[in-house]
Amino acid sequence: MTTYPTAKKAIAFILLSFVSFQLLAQQAGLQPYSPSAAEMANAYQLSAKLDTALRNIPTNNDLIPFWKKDGSAFWYKKNLPNRTWEYYYVDAATGKRKAAFDNDKLAENIEKITGKKQNPLKLQFAELYFADQGNTAKLKIQDKWYALNLSDYSLADTKDTTIYRYNAKRPLQQSRSRWQRNRESRKSPDGKSEILIRGGNLFLLDLATKTESQLSTDGNADKPYGEFAWSPDGKNIVAYKIDPKETKKVHYVLSSVPGTTRGELKSREYAQPGDDFTAYQPYVFNVAAKTAIKVDADPIDFFGAPELHWRDNNSRYYTYEKVDRGHQRFRVIEVDVLTGKTKNIIDEKTKTFIYERRIYTRYLPKTNEILWTSEQDGWQHLYLVNGITGKQTLITKGNWVVRDIDSVDVVKRQVWFRACGMNASEDPYFIHYYRIGFDGKGMVNLTPEKGNHNLSFSPDRKYYIDTYSQVNVPPVSELRLTANTKKINEIEHGQTDVYLATGVKLPEVFVAKGRDGITDIWGIVCFPSKMDPNKTYPVIENIYAGPHDSFVPKSFLPASEMQSIAELGFIVVQIDGMGTANRSKAFHDVCWKNIADAGFPDRILWMKAMSVKYPNADISRVGIYGTSAGGQSSTGALLFHPDFYKAAVSACGCHDNRIDKQWWNEQWMGYPVGPHYGEQSNITNAAKLQGNLFLIVGEADENVPPESTYRLADALIKANKDFDILSIPGMGHSDGGIYGRRRKRDFFVKHLLHAEPPNPNLLVQ
């Protein structure tokens, strides 16, 4: 497994980059872009116009099909410019596409029957279903159903509202959430008995005789029994003796509730790192003998009582999943209900963390097998586990990542999954779809074309629609045969012309080496459409470095906030540095107890390399902005890397990982809460602030408590630091909304362009 050392040498090298950049810029004869107030006002207007124009051109990055029940055809709605649309009907066998109907004729007849004016390119149906060969349809307009004859476009009232509803995105076999709680059923499988809880103890009620039997005696109101489940044969009950812990609360005040003269206090439960959790000790109660056996296992003190998985036609053994607090051990534990003895079927341990939300488990009781994903070999892969012996067989392997399991076909013994990084010539984050046998053989790539893919199936899975694109390559949608992946026909093919006609420059993909000098770091660059080749422009980074995913867009992206900001005279970038997900385990492990790192050594090196390829990028004027975890990182940029970053806008930041939600922060920062939490806190390090900082917070944030930002402000004030802060009444977890985004742009214009943004106070409303 590759390891990633600290980057002191890399950072030292970076600190020399500014002199080098200035010399290179001077040699190239480039001058800093420095607009006048009038030029800046014009840039704001042009940016808004371009943004509106781009957003009125649909990307159609996802084609959503509505299939007929027999899978012979589907219709879809295609978005058109200026928020209009049209409908198409596709024969699956041939892939032949035709207009689903004549928009003008249908609009005319809808007007006649409803008396309401219709726009032919904005026909709206609450429901629409085609029958025959697409010659008739049922449609619902508002609350009325009509039968449509497409030979003459006649509409008739109908009471036949039966239509086939099918979600083309659904898995072949849906599974419940891994952490969904145990399903409680009071009644026994035979329906003759019922479980009661009284005084914290477990009782059994015979429904025929109304007699009760007490199964436990040591429960009480403080430590009751509960969260019970029957064995399939009804002979045993699994229940838990519960040690409840109160979840502590956080509070905020709504300052500006209409019709009031006082602030309104809001309180809610919110577990923070280190808080106590309710614990569940499992017991098995034998119904006939009225005996109890304490299961030979530690209490479940993380998450709730788990779902139980019984062997097929066997009520003696069940398994459950247990993640130890701290996320360094994951087990599938088998329990013998006759003895209470346990054994570990799966027992994974790590010195860093196990990303529990990416663990996939699928239980196959008929064959006593478990499908399971793990990063134990350094990459996220799929394993087949013998549910009795625990023997593991690797199904997928290689230096690539299984991203998610789409579905499992237990009859054909195949897994359908999404993965990235398998194609060496591509962006390693591009998602592709595959199927493979349980034996690791016969892997088929359902999405062979280069790009980031989005796939959906017909009801019988005979056909699928593959839509793929890249940030600067418009989407293509193809209809294919599932059996052999043969392309039947191309359904849609986007073009760049309509976007380029607006003057926009599509994002460019850039790759540079990370801190180890080996690993590729991927990002995108957005340029001003009117960039002067003789000028240099400040660089602004849009950061989100949360370890739970990767964040650089991969699908077609002609319009974005980044592009809108770029139009004001900036080069805007987004990067996935080390510590984020969807690469190797070693790449991800950089975040372990190290959230403050945020991939900055990689990001800075990436921008240094980017400025060499694009000399118009002025990395002596670098800004950064982010929301939530991105708000934490953007402030951290000024605290821990002030030699590179000069201005930051931080919205609703998690500025101290002890203040934020328990489940997210303990996953990456570990448990118990150690001194490293405080050492990496923006609040603790507030006195280190250099550069210009703008904090934004919604007073009603229920994701990251608002006091995270207010405590940072308090620490900055006590350290006698200058900064700006915007608290927005009534707003929740947000980047500040329209107002906050405008203020963010103004801030960067002032501090990086050293220009004056338009003053809205002087504008006539």
Which oligomeric state applies? single chain
- Which overall shape is indicated by the principal axes computed on the Cα atoms? globular
The value of Rg in angstroms is 30 Å
Which residues sit in consecutive blocks of at least 5 with pLDDT less than 50? Answer: 1-19
Tally of helical segments? 13
Protein architecture, described:
By secondary structure, the chain is an alpha+beta fold. The protein is 17% helix and 33% strand. The protein has 13 helices and 42 strands. The strands form ten sheets. Strands 1, 35, 36, 37, 38, 39, 40, 41 and 42 form a nine-stranded mixed β-sheet that branches. The chain has a four-stranded antiparallel β-sheet with strand order 2-3-4-5, with no helix packed on it. A hairpin with a 4-residue loop joins β27 and β28. The chain is globular. The termini are far apart. The N terminus is likely disordered.
Task: List its salient traits.
765 residues, nine-stranded mixed β-sheet, 33% strand, alpha+beta, 13 helices, single chain, four-stranded antiparallel β-sheet, globular
